[in-house]
Amino acid sequence: MRYRVAVVAPNVVDVVRLAGGWLFDQTMAGWDVSVIVADHLDARPLQILGAITLDLESALAGPHGPCPQVIAVSADLYQTDSRVRRGVLDNLDKGETEVMLLGDTFPDDLDGRFGSGSHRLSMAARAFKAHALAAAAVSVDSIGATETFRHNELLNWPSWSISDIA
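-> structure tokens emitted (166 positions)
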């Protein structure tokens, strides 16, 4: 059985912009990656990254299979969709699933339950993210070497800085 990650976001562009490189690296590591979005008119950018795309309304209304090991949720969608918020809080309370929040804003009600994290993108991830952004008609000067997010305590992301080893 392969590890699974599910990403929940309002649209394809947000997913690619916020976590496209991380998703590509997860796919290349053998994970099954599903992206659940409200606006999924063009799934090609996510296909470039190796992810399958699902419709948000169908996913929330339909039967749920086994819970993925990681759930990454757009912080904006968490704040605007009560069903998504309830799902995140349920998963946090159960403590069995790693939860990540993607985006520039952070909900006040989750303070103290999340830490900061980042993922250093492989060179391939940076290249595929650039192609996915181009397919989504998003112009970008350059792709950063890392993607940042917030995560719950289940994740064991390194929390050291260069000054710790210098």
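Residues 75 and 104 are 8 Å apart (CA to CA).
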